[in-house]
Amino acid sequence: MLDDEPQIAAIVSKVLEACGFSPHQFTSAAPFLTEVRQAPPDLVVLDLSLGESDAVDVMRHLEAGKYRGKVLLISGRDEATLNEITEIGKKRGLLMLPPLKKPFRPADIKQRFSSNETADGARTKLRETQPATDTPEKPLLQLVEALQNNWLEVWYQPKFDLKTFSICGAEALIRARHPVYGIINPANLLPPPGDPSYEQLTRLVLECATADWKRFMQQGTALKLSINAPVSVIQAPAFISVIRSLLPNDPKFPGLTVEVTEDELVRDSERAREVASQLKLYNVDLSIDDFGSGYASLSRLNDFPFVEVKIDRSFVSGCASDKIKHGLCQTVVDLAHRFGAKVCAEGVETVEDLYSLIAMHCDAAQGFWLAKPMPAAHFASMLPGWSGQSMRALLQAKRDTLVQSA
């Protein structure tokens, strides 16, 4: 527990003891983070304001250290601020419990633990109270180890054109197939930004994607594939050489899209703009990924030759019912279109949100409701039967169900 008010920390510590925990109390960030690195706890309790530090700074360190326990924020600040900081933790991959506003009662703390719910409503265990089962928990896997053992696979998630409802592309996504633990997702695999292993990983994804494009082409579909790559990789001199050597020399090849996050682009804007212009010479376009999760703006990004903006899933989810999210999505769509770029919505998980995006004139969408990521062979096998007509029929069936339930 990290709180610069010892009296509050003492109260919380007593409640934690009553809940079966063995609390360790800290009033400054440095020794706290050292302890977390050396002996990761089941739970971290953080005050927002910590004198020379704050909860956001501490959560950055927790993310960098791949902390996998739960995080509970407590503060005397208003609930809106508490919720905003909790959202920051969630976006950094931390398992956030619903926050607590000071003053609070001991019963309020107990309620957070008894509910066993994270801030997004997902139920989860705070402590392992039973012996391990035959299905082990998915581990954190070192990317270097996965590369050396050839455990990596490239999966594909389709992107759907919201005018024709046909597949207009697919995003290449990395997975590891561990011999014991099965499929490992990127959250438990990818290192922090700037890690040198990203260069080898990007080449592997490019090799797989270009080979798979030929397989998809055999099904009669010339899909435009997209890959994710850090700016640090695409700025390296070797990247252009890899692009030259790997891209198909086929008149039907529609080109490749490289997705980069907005915060990476603006960090070294001059160099990024130069590389983006160079990539266009090889029919490689730039897409701004997770737009809205960083700190850039479309007006600032207008300096870059990008062709697509992908709205972050945190804004897409619930955009049909949340006026603020709806307004943000509509603004991104309108501005991107003024700049001549298309817009793809990420994380579509309900038919209501999908209809809302269609009404906004969003160009494309992807998400679990439409299709989950899948291995290349599975994706290739279903391409012939996945037409715009079949998607329209599915949407009409969902619409009929909504009307009947209303």
Q: What portion of residues belong to β-strands?
A: 15-25%
**Strand elements, count:** 16
CA distance, first residue to last residue = 47 Å
User: Strand arrangement, largest sheet?
Assistant: 7-8-10-11-12-13-14-15
Biggest sheet: strands, sense, closure?
A: 8 strands, mixed, barrel
Under CATH, the topology of the largest domain can be stated as TIM Barrel
What overall form do the CA principal axes indicate? globular
CATH evolutionary superfamily of the largest domain? EAL domain
Q: Mean of residue pLDDT?
A: 83
Instruction: Name the CATH architecture of the largest domain.
Output: Alpha-Beta Barrel
Helix content: 40-55%
Which radius of gyration do the C-alpha atoms yield? 23 Å
Number of helices, counting only DSSP H or I runs of 4 residues or more: 17
The domain tally reads 2
CATH class of the largest domain: Alpha Beta
Residue runs with pLDDT of under 50 for 5 or more positions: 121-136
Q: What structural class do helix, strand and pairing data support?
A: alpha/beta
List keywords for this structure.
single chain; 406 residues; alpha/beta; Rossmann fold; TIM Barrel; 2 domains; eight-stranded mixed barrel; four-stranded parallel β-sheet; 16 strands; globular
